[in-house]
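May I ask you to review the protein record following this short note?
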Amino acid sequence: MTSTQEAAGTGTELTARELESALLQRIILPRPADPTSVRSLYLDEGTATSLKSAAPTAERPGTVNEEEDEFVLHLTTAGGRRAEVLSRTSVRVPEHTETSFAAYFNAFPASYWRRWSVLDTVHLRLRLRGAGRVDVYRSTARGVPIHVHGEAVSGETAVDVPVGLRPFEDGGWIWFDLSSGSEPLDLVDGGWFADRPAPGRAAVTVGMPTFNRPSDCVATLRALGEDPLVRDVLTAVVIPDQGTSKVRDQAGFDEAAALLGDRLRIIDQPNLGGSGGYSRIMYEALEHTDCEHVLFMDDDVVLEPDSVLRALAFARFARSPMLVGGQMLSLQARSHLHVMGEVVDRHTFFWQMAPNTEDDHDFAVDSLRETLWMHRRVDVDYNAWWMCLIPRVVAEQVGQPLPLFIKWDDCEYGLRAGAHGFPTATVPGVAIWHMSFVEKDDSSDWQAYFHARNRLVAAALHGPDDPRALLLDSLKRTLRHLFLLEYSAIALHQMAMRDFLSGPKALFGSLPTALGEVRALRTRYPDGTVHPSARDLPEPPIGALAAQLWPEPPQGKVAQVKALAGALRHQLRPTAPGAAERPQRNVPAEHGTWFLLSRLDGATVSTSDGTGVTFRRRDREEFWRLLRTSLSLHRQVQRSWPALRRRYQEGMGELISREAWEAQVFSRYR
């Protein structure tokens, strides 16, 4: 391990242009306007816990917890001082202070590069000013830290530490710590580099469909244009504007557009959903630019601009063409990570978190080094299109997104690409902030139709030969919605199954019309209307508040069977007088469970985001009618499954061709 000063004259140095091309990941710092908790994504300034691998020393003060078999490393600070952020790429470590870069955006996810890239070695290159010490660590897949390199520095110093990727087969990260002595130590800039320039061209088209989110869209355009390194790799920025509140009319648009110049292309078209917007982006990129990659992003995001560079670097150094997905951080709680990655259960054919991972992780509470499960590499089936990079060669061979409006288009595309030999990697440190799904339940609102129909379409294309597990899961969800008095969701599911049974030819035609039909059907049911507040409806009877006990979930199979039997018995009884006009209880969203609502005849239930309530009313005849119809439709799908699979697979070529999208959709909206 040597500094660049010591390595001078070896003939292995890269030129400035090559260094830029070899950049894998810059060291970056939070913006001045970021909330305090966001620092935890860039810096670890507290303690770090690992499996016991060393005893405390004067250089590494800490304590050992024998019961938990943990070594707790205490980062030292004098008088509570913390690092001072000087710019987006530079930071000052005050005297007698230690700061670690073992954080989400600055640690290097080595196992992902080991698995997917052509690289055998990466280089940590830092420019430092002042006196102190640099220590480089790596972790194992179990989260055990291992000291790799350490050196004292003083004055103006350039440090170059190569680290081999061989030990990272199953997991592990690399990071570094800076510690100062009697004077501050400045990190002028730094990053993780390859030992060679990246193959191919740095040329990406960024696309972002938008629907009535003009301020968010303008902020993202500004973020793309303000950073010179990001701006230099853009061939085009394509915005299908599908709303009535136009991006061009938003304050700040002219300034953001000026940064991008003629690379910015805004296309006005009706609301064709996410798939219609993303398909337009891919079409424009392939037909009208020479880009090497297409980057999809949502419009309701806050962009970390370096994520564009990191995704592009990962794709360029990949062993073979592949999709590179960005992770989702919570826009409401900025230090929270949504999930590490997602897979599809091939039996029930439903998406879920990748095995051995957790959701909604808060780095402000548990740092990367404390989160041992996060050191294992996570493999995925697909990446959602809040941020996903698709190589041009993949788009040309795999085709356009399916015309599904929303839901399952990104998942289906990832599965389709995988079937063509193009895998997906969801890469830590490549991320955007997106509105969290924690306070959403789109499975029961108007989106329930698209969840149900598109799941069946994707399963017909990529799912099991035997659909029984999928249909059993679907029936369980049907019964749950019925007990929750969400009759509109069941009506939408039935509409979805009928449309699925009709075959693939109607998908293009329904793209601009399905949403209106869905909304119209939903309004026929009481639970399809959201009221501003429970106070706008009659109050529950006197004494109802005294009975506001919230039942615990039934535990074990016996208790669950009893609760289910009781819920079904209640559906046989006549509705209590007056329950359709006056709710029996006001139920908070967190207590709106099937084992409570199945006992009631009328209740207001708060929406997941807390902005309103639905007044749900039990209807005995409607319950049993909906259940009988759902059972019949599930039987039809099961009987017709082999023929349906053939129809959808044979019709897929038409659905994903550029020519079909142009003829049936885009030519109408020039």
Observations:
- The radius of gyration is 27 Å.
- The longest strand covers residues 174-193.
- Confidence is low (pLDDT under 50) at residues 1-12, 48-72.
